[in-house]
Design goal:
single chain, alpha+beta, three-stranded antiparallel beta sheet, three-stranded mixed beta sheet, 10 strands
């Protein structure tokens, strides 16, 4: 009876989630514990066992230790969200708090600067001690602590820094950067200030030129 109750509670929790949301055993255990009015530590082992069984039954897909995603049934069969994208999303948020951002080729591809899509999605974040070793191949360290107010600025500044090093193959990369800045309603003064404080001279000059549409270079004349 207890095993059935655990499974029912877990399935209720899983089916209520967005299909593209990452599932952690820690979150599932917290939910089950609340429903049963028990301590999380008391239910965690049984939750882990049930999650492993659900994976074997094909209900969920294991991304890495303690992290899963749902398999979504469609008219054309089962759809599994991209594992790398889901894993990166897990790294970039701590519940509703932004703690990192996508960077590297995958970010440049998403922005529209490169057509090449890398096999791995890379993230820029201040890794927690418990996951720093596990995610070493995916993480790099940003110049400042990332939050909801600055992550877009840092992401665009990373892209500007990489313009001359990455395999950029769009016809007008500067226009793509400007369009992205406008899309996210980023402020010119704030972009330039962050470039000055946290990036090198070359990135600063390039940022000023892009944000001011060439007027900086003209003024230097």
């Amino acid at each position: 009876m207890e095993k059935t109750k655990y499974r029912d509670l877990i399935m209720r929790y899983l089916t209520a989630l967005d299909p593209n949301q990452v599932i952690t055993t820690e979150q599932v255990a917290q939910y089950v514990a609340e429903q049963l009015q028990l301590e999380t530590a008391t239910v965690k082992k049984t939750v882990n066992v049930n999650m492993a069984r659900l994976e074997k039954e094909g209900e969920i897909v294991r991304l890495t230790k303690g992290i899963y995603c749902r398999k979504v049934k469609t008219a054309f069969g089962y759809y599994t969200p991209d594992k790398e994208t889901l894993f990166c999303k897990q790294l970039l948020r701590n519940e509703n708090e932004v703690i990192g951002y996508e960077t590297g080729l995958s970010a440049l591809n998403r922005i529209g600067l490169v057509s090449q899509m890398p096999q791995k999605v890379h993230c820029n974040k201040l890794a927690h001690e418990k996951d720093s070793e596990r995610n070493a191949d995916r993480d790099s360290k940003p110049p400042i602590r990332v939050n909801a107010d600055n992550f877009r600025y840092l992401q665009i500044l990373d892209a500007i820094r990489e313009l001359d090093m990455a395999p950029v193959d769009t016809a007008k990369p500067v226009d793509v950067v400007r369009a992205t800045v406008q899309k996210f309603a980023l402020e010119t003064d704030q972009m330039i200030l962050m470039a000055r404080k946290y990036y090198g001279q070359k990135t600063l000059v390039r940022t000023i030129d892009i944000m001011l549409e060439g007027s900086y270079e003209s003024a230097r004349g």
